[in-house]
Task: inverse folding
């Protein structure tokens, strides 16, 4: 009984964590779709790149960060380690980031 309860709780914790991780990647700390936070609103980033595809082509490449949203260019040092972190994610996690990103810019 006790063991079963612990197992159930552990399962809950794991699914709860997975659900929140897929709903909101760490990017959410600094970015939103239509509002500037620590980083530029994703709509501005998409406008600067031309399309969501172009943004992810850059993110998924090994090109260095050359900020395209002029007003935020000075904050490059904040995004640089995030880019490194993103590039280390599994393909599955990257797909989750993209799904979330697209949801934000709707
Ligand atoms: C700690 C805060 C922070 C986090 C976390 C963060 N960013 Fe950023 N991001 C910034 C800042 C500040 C800028 C503006 C400076 C720049 O463009 O390099 C930026 C810029 C960007 C740009 C525009 C880069 C360019 O070429 O103009 C993209 C795209 C981006 N972030 C995507 C993401 C994604 C996707 C994630 C999550 C995987 C993420 N960011 C996580 C702070 C953050």
Result:
């Amino acid at each position: 009984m006790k063991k079963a309860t612990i197992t159930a709780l552990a399962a809950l914790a794991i699914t709860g964590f997975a659900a929140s991780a897929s709903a909101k990647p760490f990017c959410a700390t600094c970015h939103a779709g239509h509002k500037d936070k620590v980083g530029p609103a994703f709509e501005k980033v998409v406008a600067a790149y031309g399309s969501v595809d172009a943004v992810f082509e850059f993110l998924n490449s090994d090109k260095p960060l050359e900020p395209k949203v002029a007003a935020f260019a000075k904050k490059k040092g904040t995004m640089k380690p995030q880019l490194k972190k993103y590039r280390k994610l599994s393909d599955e996690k990257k797909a989750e980031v993209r799904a979330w990103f697209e949801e934000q810019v709707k």
The pocket of heme C is lined by residues 25-27, 29-31, 38-40, 45, 48, 55, 59, 65, 67-69, 72, 75-76, 78-79, 82, 86, 97 (CB under 6 Å). The longest helix spans residues 2-23. The CA atoms of residues 38 and 46 lie 17 Å apart. Residues 25-105 form a domain with the Cytochrome Bc1 Complex; Chain D, domain 2 fold (CATH 1.10.760.10).
